[in-house]
Amino acid sequence: MTIIGASGSGKRAPALPINPPEDADGGAHVWGFHGGRPSPAEPRPTVNRPREKIGMVFQGFNLFNNMNVVDNCTLAPVTLKRMSKAEAERVALEHLDSVGLSDFTHADVGTLSGGQKQRVAIARALCMQPDLMLFDEPTSALDPEIVGEVLEVMRTLAAEGMTMVVVTHEMAFARNVSDEVVFMDQGVIAEKGSPEKMFTAPEKPRTREFLARYLG
Questions:
Q1: CB under 8 Å to 89, separation ≥6 — which residues?
Q2: From CA 95, how far away is CA 103, in angstroms rounded?
Q3: Strand duo 181-185 + 188-193: pairing
C-alpha cells in the first residue's frame, strides 16, 4: 500500500499508529500476525510485542553514526531477539548483500552516500525478520540521482512478497508497484483504490487535481 498526498495533507497519519512513536489515547489496532488479535490502546508492553515484527525505514535514515554498517544491523537482533552475535552478523551480511552493500560491511556510516545510508536502513529493518515494513518518505531526503537505487530495493522487496506500507511522493513507484493507493487530504482519507483506478479514473475532484499530470 502506498499513501500519497500533498505536503501537510496528513500522509503519515494512517501509517504511524501501526508502529506508534507515542502512546495512543484511543482506538485499537488489529494486526494480521500474532493470530490477528486486537492490541488495545494500552501501555507500551501491549504494543511492543507486535512491533518486533514491524520494520521501520525513516525519511532521515536514523542510523547510529557511532557504529559501522554491520553493527547498525546487528544491534537490535542481539538486544531484542537474543540472537547470537555470530548469527546476527550472518543475517546482516545476507541482507546487506541483498541491497548491494556487501562491500561496505565495516564502513563508517558517516562515509556513505544518502542512498547507501537508506539501503543500510532497509537492511537493518530486514534483520529483525519483520512481517511488515513501513517506509516514511524514504526517498525525500535523497538527491534525485540516487533515488532510483533505493526504489529498486523496494521494488525487489515488493516482488518478493514483503507486506509494505509506503508514505511517498514517488508517483511512478505508487502507480507501478502498489496493490492499493490511499490519497490523503486535510488529514483524512479522501480516496483509495487500485493504482489503475487512482491513476486513470479517480472519483474525487481533489484527487484528480493532485494527480492531474499523471492521469491517463
A1: 70, 74
A2: 12
A3: antiparallel
Q: Which residue is associated with the grid cell 537482533?
A: 77
Q: Which of 114, 133, 137 is nearest to 8 (CA)?
A: 137
Instruction: Give the CB-side neighbour count of residue 140, counting CA atoms within 13 A.
Output: 15
Say how far apart CA 110 and CA 68 lie, in whole Å.
9
What DSSP line would sit under 82-147, residue for residue? ---HHHHHHHHHHHHHHTT-GGGTT-BGGGS-HHHHHHHHHHHHHTT--SEEEEESTTTTS-HHHH
* 69 three-class SS: helix
Whether the predicted pLDDT of 75 surpasses 80: yes
Which residues lie across from 107 on neighbouring strands? none
What is the pLDDT confidence band of residue 41, given thresholds at 50, 70 and 90? very low
CB atoms within 10 A of CB 162: 15
Q: What's the pLDDT score for residue 64?
A: 94
Angle, to 10 degrees, between the axis of helix 69-80 and the axis of helix 114-126? 20
- Cα 79 to the center of its chain, rounded Å: 22
CB 114 within 8 A of CB 145: no
Q: Name the nearest CA neighbour of 17 among 7, 8, 27.
A: 27
DSSP letter at 34 equals G
